[in-house]
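Q: Predict the assembly, please.
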Amino acid sequence: MSIDRETETGSNAMAAARGYRRIATEEAFATAEMFELYRKLLAQGEPLDRGFHSLWGFYLGSPSDRARRIIERLQHLDEQRISDMDASGIDVQVLSLTSPGVQIFDPATAVSIARSSNDQLAAAIRKHPERFAGLAAVAPQRPAEAAKELERGVRQLGLRGMILNSHTHGEYFDDPKFWDIFAAAEALDVPVYLHPNSPSNELIGPLLQRGLDGAIYGFGVETGMHLLALITSGVFDRFPKLKVVVGHLGEALPFWLFRIDYMHRATVASGRYAFLKPLQRCPSEYLRANVFVTSSGMAWAPAIRFCQEVLGIDRVLYAMDYPYQFVTEEVVEMEHGPDSIEKRRMFYQTNAERVFGIAPPAN
Amino acid sequence: MSIDRETETGSNAMAAARGYRRIATEEAFATAEMFELYRKLLAQGEPLDRGFHSLWGFYLGSPSDRARRIIERLQHLDEQRISDMDASGIDVQVLSLTSPGVQIFDPATAVSIARSSNDQLAAAIRKHPERFAGLAAVAPQRPAEAAKELERGVRQLGLRGMILNSHTHGEYFDDPKFWDIFAAAEALDVPVYLHPNSPSNELIGPLLQRGLDGAIYGFGVETGMHLLALITSGVFDRFPKLKVVVGHLGEALPFWLFRIDYMHRATVASGRYAFLKPLQRCPSEYLRANVFVTSSGMAWAPAIRFCQEVLGIDRVLYAMDYPYQFVTEEVVEMEHGPDSIEKRRMFYQTNAERVFGIAPPAN
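A: Predicted assembly structure:
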């Protein structure tokens, strides 16, 4: 089944005919200046971050079709991207700087590149306000400055939240030294998108040896652990209104929900780790109260339905993971299922509007 | 709802009234001599295996109710265990030496303890042939001897397959040096149960720091990776009749099935890792053809139904994970659902009879 090319107005008309807009919520871009710095890091001798070198050594070095097309598409923030969106029936992309974004840089570079990327993203959104929305990049290496950049991104640039790409040189956001960032997100009432990164150096060994460090498995290990660590650290007790969005249908934590609750209770009760403290609620309650999951990379009805069942249909959002998993037939194939139009509207449109504060279309 | 204590005959009668036997397929035991050697390893200075010290340092050292009861119950291979089975409505336990079994020992000790554990297990089964079945422990440190011990276990002791507890000092069974073991399992037509171990030293760092190295998350990371590595290594192309049983509903690989297929195809096509070779089938096909999953630790209807949907109802087996997750109400609560008796019979009884070659009851 082919989809007609849509103009900007055409997209509105088709969304109206369909009964909902399709908002894709984990869509990546990159800037030329960031890639230039990535290339410099890759050219250095001993890799500081083994996962970064595995991932970006491939994308920026491989002559394969996959790598070349992704590098090209990541840098499109104009007509070419909109043409890909039209071809795949996507009305709006929520854009974020691709992983690991600025988190691989030294602190000063990270602060500077985050700011400049946000400015470039905001310019693209100003040009195509009906097709693009965006999340701010920040430099967690300097938490107080990250909080300020988030505020600038939201208040001055109109961005809809923040992206964090899992670990930063092996450090995770369960460490309270980062929590100024969460305080800012809660105060601004915007979500934090916890996006995968390659597993950190102490987690990647056997995965890297087997070629399983990337999206096939390692990203999920890294990011699922990070989300679980946020929960067990008590971050949601400290910031009860914090909203975290997680891709790849929650990085499998919805699947583990029963076991996590059982084992967290048993582990805390037995005092196995002195530092693991009781929480106000059980882990699954935070997953259902503070976390939203998107379908990035998981365009598969059984897993989407499972998450809707165990988390609630108001907590599962559509994402494509463009350009990493750019499949033009994706949404059309997914819509062959038996879901009601109301359920589809929540999945594709209204959940995203609510979580990211995106205004419904004017018409 | 309380369950009447059953005698050995009583169990048969209740199973007949119910319409099926409940066979629990991932049930652990330990021997006193193995625990004595574990205590010696723990008393040594620098830990060779950080996950072993975290796990067994807790169970053998903690004064908590949980640790004491589990250590006690693991060593019961007689009336006390049968009384626990009666209390929870379990007709048959498929027993295996608890993780990491002998895989933590030096090769000579591992060979010797595997043999002696299998003898003790076989004696318990001879005493209670209607209530116990068992899997052989082997020492993968010496693959050829492991293959022989499997043959002795199956042919002479009447054991139903073999248990492997994930990594052995950081080595995984995707390494062809271990494949004599799989050749023996395939030739004997018995399954290999791939059971969790604590993550290996190169995988455990951030998990251990956060108290997430155990059953709450780390076991799944370790064992899910191991199963995926078996698949991508081509072990099922080399041994197409090999049957692998995996607990905890497949260690989340069923949830990741779509993404694994997509990313395996993309990764191989782009040549990202020279050593990652094309397979004869896509990864999900091996999961559906060579792998069976059990519900150990996942007594949760939504996840069980999801696995039945995506793998097939003939591939999902019941397990309790006694004594680690001993919940007497478990099966009664799970049977409140809408499943037909035919579906329940497959889940609790006939799938296990087929996979482990357990004879149906005589009556």
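Confidence is low (pLDDT under 50) at residues 1-6 of chain A. Chain A has 17 helices and nine strands.
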